[in-house]
Structures are given as C-alpha cells and as structure tokens.
Amino acid sequence: MDHMNITMKTSKEYLYSNKSYYDYPSVPISKPESKYTQQTAYQSPQYVSSSDEGSYGPNPNSNPQSQPYCTLESSMPPNPNSHNSPSTYSFSPTGGSPLSQQESDNTNISNGSPISVSCITITEDPNPSQDELQQKLRELESVMLGPDSDAPEYYQQYQTGTPNPSEWMQLMGIPRGDLKQLLLHCAKAVEENDFVSIDWMVQELRKMVSISGTPMERLGAYLLEGLVARLESSGSSIYKALKCKEPTSSDLMSYMHTLYEVCPYFKFGYLSANGAIAEAVKGADSVHIIDFQIAQGSQWITLMKALAARPGGPPSIRITGIDDAQSAYARGGGLHLVGRRLAHEAASCNVPFEFHPLDMNGSEVRREHLNIRHGEALAVNFAFQLHHMSDESVNTENHRDRLIRLIKSLNPTVVALVEQESNTNTSPFFQRFCETLDYYTAIFESIDVTMQRDDKKRISVEQHCLARDIVNVIACEGEERVERHELFGKWRARFSMAGFRPCPLSPLVNATIKTLLESYSPNYWLQEIEGVLYLGWKHRPLVVSCAWR
Q1: For residues 435 and 513, is the Cβ–Cβ distance under 8 A?
Q2: Where is the composition biased (Polar residues) (predicted)?
Q3: pLDDT given at position 134
Q4: How far apart are CA 457 and CA 247, in angstroms?
Q5: How confident is the model at residue 454, as a pLDDT?
Q6: Spatial CA neighbour of 387 closest among 482, 510, 303, 460
Q7: 20 to 30 Å CA-CA from 374: which of 125, 146, 402, 519?
Q8: In which element (H, E) is residue 47 found?
C-alpha cells in the first residue's frame, strides 16, 4: 500500500536509536512583558511542527462544549505530603463518584496580603500625576471596601496580578481551544512548579476534556488526571487503588477481550511470538515454555494446535506460567484455572501436557523456581511484560538485566520479546509526558475508528485497560512507576550485552500478520527491518516483536 511505504520511510529514521522518538524543544521560563505582575511567570514557544515528523500541532477537533470532565472512579484520601500550591487539587471521596478535582476557596492568587490601613502612607506631592491619583484612589477603595468588594474587573485583576484565561493563553501564544498545546504547557508548568500557571490551566483544561469526546479530549482527561495526581503526590495510591478496585472479574474480562478484538496490538504480539517459538522448536520432542505473564493462557492454545498438526506428531509440552496474585482477580481465580483450561485444550489435540504455576512477580523469579530439565527445547516468552521490571535507574538490583542474564544462563532455544515502542523509562518528566501524549493519541485514534464515542463499553475499556497505565507514567516516580517502556534499540543493547544473538522472524510470520491486518483499518501498517517486526498506526510505531537465541 502507498500509505504504508510513506510511513515506513518516516519510522525508519529512529528505529535504531536509543533516543526518544522526538526531540522536544527546551521551553524557557521568562517573565512576559505585560501589565500583570505574577509570582511565577510562564512563557514558552508553541509546540508545533509538521505531522510527518510526529510532533505536536493544534487540534482543530477540540470541542470545549463536550461532556464535562469525568474520568476514573476512586475514593482517595487527601495526601498530607502534597505540593503546596495556590489551589488544592484533590479527589472526590464520595463513594462511587467519578474522579474529579475540588477547588479550594482560595482562588485569587496575589503577591502579598490584602492592603491594610497600617500599610498605606500618603505622601504629599504638590504636582501628582493622573496615574498617581488613580493609584491612591485604588488603595483607599481597597481599605474601605475590602478585597471582596464589587470593584471593577480591571481592578480585581490589578489587585491579584492574575489576568483572565484568555489573556493568559494570548500571553503564552496558545491558540484558543487548542487542547494539545494547553496540555503541553500545563505539563511544562508542572515540571517547573509554576503553580500560578498550573492553577488556571487546570481549570481551563477541565472545560475542554471529555471521556466521550474526540480521541484528544478523551486522552486529555486521563493526562490531566495524571498531572493532578502528580501535584498531589498521589499517583501511586491512585494506581494501586484502581488496580484493586476494578469492576467485577467478568466485566474486566469483557473489557480486556474487547480491546483485544478492536485493536490488533495483542494479536500481533502473540501471533509473532508463537511464530518465532514454533519455528525454533519444530524438530524437538519435548518443549518447555516459560511465560513471564501468562494471564489467561490463551496465547498457547493456538500454538498447541499448530504443533499438534506437524508431521510426525506433536511434542510433549510443559508450560511454566508466571503471574502475580493481582492478576487472579481478572481471571476470577488462581493460576490453577489456567492450567485446567490448557490441559483441556491439550487433551483435545492429543498433546502430552504439564503445567507448572508460579504465583509470583517476575522480578522474584530465580533459577530454582523454573525446574529446568535436560533435553527439553526451552522457549521463553516476554510479551508486554519486561518493561515492568525495574532497571539500573531505579535500584541496584536491576531486575530487568538480571532476568535477561538469568534466561541466557539457561541456554534457551528461543526468547520472544514483544514490547510497546515507546520511551518512558528514564526520560525527564516533560519529555515523558510528550511521549505519552503522542503514543496514546495513536492508541485512542485507533479505538475511535472501531467504537462509537458514546459507547459506554468503549469508555470502560479506556478507563480500566489504558487510563491506569497513563496515570502511572505521568504521576509516579522511582519504584512506584512500573510502566517503564523502552525503544527497541535499548532492548537490543540489553540482550546483546547478555550474550544473545538476534533470531530473525520467518517470512511466514510476516505473511500471517499481514493477513490479520486486512480486517482492520488501513491506517495500521507493518514493517520488517532485519527480522524485527513493527506494528504502527499512521506515523507512529506502537509495538515491536523480535526473537533472540
């Protein structure tokens, strides 16, 4: 397809770089030249460039009149360690209410306390100017009428030093109604602790975002949530609360299945990993698969059927399924349910089968847990999981590299790696925000072409399957930030340093994925570079799949 060729050229430029997908402009913080005096003035150039370069431009589809801001459900107590800002950002404690921001009564920000009688000194000037007379009259008016008087609007602005939102946006060069630009400026203000700017921008953003609006309006609601959670230092609490207070397991399973069906990302990952494993173990009589996030185990049903149909009969298959206890909620039970389901499928295919459950986090896995047997072809599956492991930037244990080295010491036949193609691991906050905005814009756009905007199930899918991760990337730091994606170039460096060599995916895998994409939007594209497969949406690569040995 022509559109695929165009996007391929664009994406190829960064595929082997460890840098972020975009070079973000440094945004100077300076005091605007205006009649307003403020505690922390904020000014930056626009974040606008061509869409071919994947940068950030105005969003003409933003609709300030959309459904009111309403995002995730939680009941978070106020955090005593929150930032001291002019307004208090908190989350509604009412049971079952949407996550929202409660404004404090202190909405006027001034450079000092209100003028009192004791601080006014009128000096005699034989020839006062008109401006000086106006100034004295205003001071007297403040003393007599108080700060809450019905003084004209221009005087209220003079006293507080805060222009109205329209003037703020004009001062900073933000086109009116440009949600993307306002989100970027707000993120920069958060990075700089510019609470004066944050205060009004958050209020304006609430009017512009909507969980049932355009892709940018919907994503903006969750990005705004992450920014507010970061200010409150409550990002980790929200992430954990949402992970525990999910809908019923049957509902959550339904949302996950919906996302699996409407977007090809997971199918792409699982099919490509299965293809790499099937190719590597095609001559083996006994196969041991270690899956570091087995979830429902659905990935292995198709592989068992494929191996059962090979000439000479199927091999015996043993699967070690690793998953933490929190995943049991989505399944409605422990890993024994996965083992029972897979055993049933194996029996239907006449495949000799064993299941070994490991109910633990991937970072806790040690060699003695894996029950390695001599003579087995060993296949290891890292599908959308390894980015959860902390690395050298988080702690000295560096579980990310430790696990890779551990697997290498087992002399595996093949290791399948599937990850989001995004750079949110070690990037500074503002670059991480820009990367998250760009990456999830593509995700939300791809959902938009399949599900109606007023579809309640679409809202639930985005809230329970995507929003929690967005909040974690934006609001959390250190070990509490578990969503730490890296670009393929970085993964390649890690695996190479551990002694792995790339194992190119077979042409059959490529052809299978192309057939899969025929039933989806033409905006999806597939690209292979030296045996590594990339799946993308428009200008943006989203998922990468590769194999190692």
Answers
A1: no
A2: 35-53, 88-112
A3: 61
A4: 12
A5: 87
A6: 482
A7: 402
A8: none
429 close to 478: Cβ distance less than 8 angstroms: no
Threshold 0.90, pTM exceeds: no
**pLDDT value at position 522?**
96
- Contact call for residues 416 and 276 (beta carbons, < 8 A): yes
CA distance 237 to 22: 30
Nearest by Cα to 366 from 395, 325, 334, 409: 409
Closest by CA position to 376, among listed 400, 352, 358, 360: 352
Long-range contacts, stretch 247-250, CB < 8 angstroms, 24+ apart: 247/460, 247/464, 249/329, 249/330, 249/331, 249/332, 250/332
Query: Minimal CA–CA distance to 424: which of 433, 432, 434, 416?
Result: 432
Please say whether the beta carbons of 274 and 303 come within 8 A.
yes
Residues of the chain predicted below pLDDT 70: 1-163, 165, 234-246, 325-326
Q: What's the rounded Cα separation, in Å, for the pair 484 and 373?
A: 33
CA angle (20 as vertex; 18, 21 as ends), nearest 5? 110
The DSSP line for 367-407 is: GGGS---TTPEEEEEEES-GGGS--TTT-TT-HHHHHHHHH
pLDDT score recorded for residue 172: 73
User: What pLDDT shows up at residue 308?
Assistant: 94
pLDDT of residue 127: 61
